[in-house]
Amino acid sequence: MDRVNQLTNGFIIFAFLLAPAISADMVFAPPPTRPDPMQAGERFPESRFGQPPARIDLGVTPRYAAQAVEEFEGSDEAVGAWTASAPNRRIAGLEITNGVPAGRSVAQPAPGTRNTDLRPDLSPKDVDPTSAASAIVRKGVQEVAVIAGDLGFFPKTVFVTRDVPVRLFVTGASKNTLCIMMDSFQVRKQVRSQKIEEITFTPNMPGKYRFYCPVNGSEGTLVVKEFTNRISENAATGE
C-alpha cells in the first residue's frame, strides 16, 4: 500500500515539473482582424439613447428647396410676360376657308381635258326576276344542318327554295345508329353516332315534305318555297 502511495505522489510531482516546459513551447496566434466598415475620412450618423441622430452635411443649405421654388415661380412669370407681349400670335393649326386650306390653291385641270366623275352610280335599276332566279339556280347551293338524336330531329322544320340544290348535313348525336328517310326525294341515309352524313338533292316542287327515322320514330318537315314569287312581288310593288 505504501508502495502505491509513493508511486502516485511521484507521478503528481513529475506532472507539475513537466507542465512549465510544455507551456513554454506553445505560441498562441492572434485572432484575425476584421475589416473596419468605416473607411478613412468617412463619417456616419450616430444615434445615442435619448438623442436624435447627427445631421449629415449634404452640400446644400437649409433654404435650398425654398430658393428652387422661388426660381421656378419666377420662370412662370417670365413666360406669362412674354405671352402678354405678343397678343397677335395664335396657336399653330390648320385654317380652312371656303373648303380650301389657307395659303393653298386649288389645282385646275389642264386645257382640253374634261372632269371625270369617279363616284359610283347609286340610282336603282330594273331587275329581271327570271334572270335573277336563274343565276341563283346556276350558282347557288343551299346548305342545311340537322341534328339527329334520341329525342328527335333538331330543328324539326327546315326551309329551302325550289330548283336550288340542297346539301343536307345530318349529325348523329345519339349513342345508337339512327337514319333519315325522305320518300319524296328518294333519300335513305344511315346516321352513325358522332358522325356527319352529307345528303344532296334538288327539290323541284314547292310544298311540305316529311322526313323521318323509323329507329326511334322521330319526324320532321321540309318546307320548299317558291323563289321567284318573292322577287316578282317586290318588283311589282316597287320595293
CATH architecture of the domain at 129-234: Sandwich
Strand order of the largest sheet: 4-3-6-9
The CATH class of the domain at 129-234 is: Mainly Beta
In which range does the helix fraction lie?
25-40%
Q: Work out the radius of gyration.
A: 54 Å
Q: Beta-strand percentage?
A: 15-25%
Instruction: Calculate the terminal CA-CA distance, rounded to whole Å.
Output: 145 Å
Low-confidence stretches: 127-137
What is the number of E strands? 11
The biggest beta sheet is recorded as: 4 strands, mixed
The CATH H-level superfamily of the domain at 129-234 is Cupredoxins -  blue copper proteins
String of helices and strands: HHEEHEEEEEEEEEH
pLDDT averaged residue by residue: 73
Class computed from helices, strands and strand pairing: alpha+beta
User: What would the CATH topology of the domain at 129-234 be?
Assistant: Immunoglobulin-like
Shape: elongated
Discrete helix count: 4
